[in-house]
Specification:
The protein is mostly helical and 224 residues long. It has 10 helices and 2 strands, in the order E-E-H-H-H-H-H-H-H-H-H-H.
């Protein structure tokens, strides 16, 4: 006996549909994982992390709950995948640009421009990342995963800064690049939080201007 499955096609009875959907999640030509991420983005943005549920994500994507668990270990894993896509990926793109840009390209205004774009396009996800940070402070396992994610970004940014200094022909810095990366990332997070509360307090060019001042101080110290 057949019925209609979660995507509106003839299929087996609900009791047997779970296993079929797990196979479909692997075998169908479209990207099931990306569809689930897209649905999860809508659900998390609308309801916040605490109130969002795997059931709602699955229903919005048109998949069974089992399909979500095929791709993600749980809600935390799904949320971290989204943070990596919506928040970390733009940062990684900026890091890659910093590492590869020619010497004549001024990266300070570029940093400000991309920062402003991130605040505009991913405002909800910056808020959700802050919400998740609060949870991580109270949960050792979440804190470990959160810290690991930030550690990887710091290392990548530190490497990019070192490469950029080579491209600009600057001498070796007295401060390790990863320490500078830590300061830059903290600056970016702090400005983002301030801009969300009081946008007028954070001009579009402030991040780039501050980075430029830090860079000048570092290069002056290296020259001295």
């Amino acid at each position: 006996m057949t019925g209609m499955n979660a995507r509106g096609r003839p299929g087996k009875e609900p009791a047997r549909r779970f296993d079929r959907r797990r196979r479909d999640a692997r075998a169908e030509p479209h990207d099931a994982r990306q569809e689930l991420l897209s649905a999860a983005a809508d659900v998390f943005s609308a309801r916040g992390f605490h109130h969002a549920s795997i059931d709602e994500v699955a229903a919005r994507a048109g998949y069974s709950k089992g399909a979500v668990y095929w791709h993600f270990a749980g809600k935390d894993d799904l949320f971290l995948a989204l943070i990596e896509e919506r928040v970390d990926r733009p940062l990684r793109e900026m890091i890659e640009l910093l590492e590869s840009a020619p010497a004549e390209r001024d990266m300070a205004p570029e940093a400000s421009r991309r920062f402003a774009e991130l605040l505009t396009a991913q405002r909800d996800w910056i808020l959700l990342d802050n919400e998740y940070w609060l949870r991580a402070m109270r949960d050792p396992e979440l804190r470990r995963r959160y810290a690991e994610r930030r550690r990887e970004l710091r290392a990548a940014l530190g490497d990019a800064l070192a490469r950029r200094m080579e491209t600009l022909g600057a001498g070796p810095l007295a401060v390790q690049p990863e320490r500078i990366a830590t300061a830059f990332m903290a600056l970016t997070v702090g400005l983002a939080q301030q801009a969300l509360v009081d946008p007028g307090a954070v001009p579009d060019d402030l991040l780039g201007e501050t980075i430029l001042l830090i860079y000048r101080g570092l290069t002056a110290g290296a020259a001295g």
